[in-house]
Amino acid sequence: MRNRFLTRVTVVAIGLCVAAVTLVTAQTPAYRAPRAPDGKPNLGGIWQAINTANWDIEAHSAAPSPVLELGAAGAVPGGLGVVEGGTLPYRPEALAKRNENRANRLKLDPEIKCYLPGVPRATYMPFPFQIIQSQKHIMLIHEYAGAVRTIYMTDQTEAPADSWMGWSNGRWEGESLVVDTKGFNDLSWFDRSGNFHSDALHVVERFTPRSADTLNYEVTVEDPKVFTRPWKMSMPLYRRVEPNAQILEFRCVEFVEDLLYGHLRKQPSQ
Amino acid sequence: MTSMKVTATFVIFVTFAIFVRAQAPAYKVPRTPDGQPDLQGFWSNATYTPLERPDNVTKEFYTPEEAAAAEKAAAARESAETEPGTVADVHYDFTQFGLDRSQATLARSLRTSLIVDPKNGKLPPITAEGKKILAARAEEAKRLGGRWDSAQSNQLDDRCIIMAGPGPPMMDAAYNSNYHIVQAPGYVMILTEMIHDVRVIPLDGRPQPPAAVRQWMGVSRGRWEGDTLVVETTNFNGKNPFRGSTENMKVIERLRRVADDTIEYNFTVEDKSMWVQAWSVEAVMRKTAGPLFEHACHEGNYGLYNTLVGARLEDQKAAEGAAKKDSK
Lengths: 270, 328
Known about the structure:
The complex is a heterodimer of chains A (270) and B (328).
Chain A: H1 2-27, E1 45-48, H2 92-103, H3 105-108, H4 121-124, E2 129-133, E3 137-142, E4 148-152, E5 167-173, E6 176-182, E7 202-211, E8 214-222, E9 231-239, H5 257-261
Parallel strand pairs in A: 4-5
Antiparallel strand pairs in A: 1-2, 1-9, 2-3, 3-4, 5-6, 6-7, 7-8, 8-9
Chain B: H1 2-23, E1 41-44, H2 64-81, H3 87-91, E2 115-117, H4 128-144, E3 178-184, E4 187-192, E5 197-202, E6 219-225, E7 228-234, E8 250-259, E9 262-270, E10 279-287, H5 302-327
Antiparallel strand pairs in B: 1-3, 1-10, 2-10, 3-4, 4-5, 6-7, 7-8, 8-9, 9-10
């Protein structure tokens, strides 16, 4: 009798353990981020991508520098690409334009002229950016060119005008900050390889904490004038953990004046 | 007994009245969820009040009537400068595009000058070293040539490098003098509309970076002293002199919300290389309607490009004219 009772207890106990393990396993994938004072996941901090997406969001091999004098310092590191499915679904005429952009990138890439980077390029340029998170507004402050985005969490409106960085409205979906951005002009690129968009661009970004010091960054890009279907890219973003980390000035306008206006300098002979 | 009672009641009443009166002006500053005094929102520091007191004014404050008259006169001068047909009008018709201050949210004050120290409302005298620095700057400007000789010989705002808004200190930018303040634990962020310049001010008491790090807007460190945000900024690059300042300038700003629609904005400028003494300003920021728009100044800077093209065409014409004269 006693043994049978013990057996029964053991079976029930094992059963409970299995149930508990199953339950825990089903719930573990979601990392729960520390909370902001308003109870939302706290995304505050200085973040940076570590990849070669700014060179080319598609997979690419290492390549020589387009500027002879820069030698190995200006050469392109290879990359596995960040685009889901590997290749961008360009319309045929748009693909031709991309290739033309690529061939003339020293003349055409907005980054070379210190122009605002657009979205999502701002996020994965080789510069840090800071998230300042309040209840009403979440600010993305980029070191490159002092680019800044305001994400409206409560006082949301349609884009009042087209702009380089677009007009962003945000919402929380569980642990993710979802940012819906429209109202772009057609002047920014996705990378240094001529991948581009039109003013019909619609970007939806998801910032999801995946550990104390990393975020998952997933982007859905829609632009029917340039692409045959919406496409996605994703990458981790890493926290700059240096205790003294801060966004410094990269006020590059001054660095490109000779490039843009040097040929208009008064000649001494005149 | 009755009269004593009446007297006592009167005394209590008067005491209460005085107490209420004394308490009434104390504005209770709202708090952010993490407990900081809440400065968040959209603000304007557009003002017609000059930094220095006009020569013909001797008092510190105008009466409300005098202030209104001074504002009206300043607005009239501003609109006359940009009247159709004038040079400034070719640049922008301020009134048409709502860029004149009279169409902005004005941060009014009865002060006759923003400077409160020195007491005469004027910048302090310049040091001997400061005079040498100013002379060297004038030499350098001469070396760069005329305004339209190159991009670099233009003013910083025409080049879309930096304008008056972000400072520090933050000053009226002639138009679009708008700011957006957002706070998060450990930080106050101030976005200036002009050239989307952002100040991210850490509040954690971290030290300034090494002296080798120099920035247009310097490097700012903040702290709360009661309800007042105190921000100290050094590490300037000195390429954007504020009324003559050098890279040794230190700016101490104090921001305190004194009403739902008003931030008191006071600052002190220390720069022993330029002035014999520190000087101080008392100004205000007034709540304004948001949002701020993207001011992509450099990206749309056709003005600088076209003017340089025009200047080189003028050079060419002049050279051709001279050649013709020679051949005669």
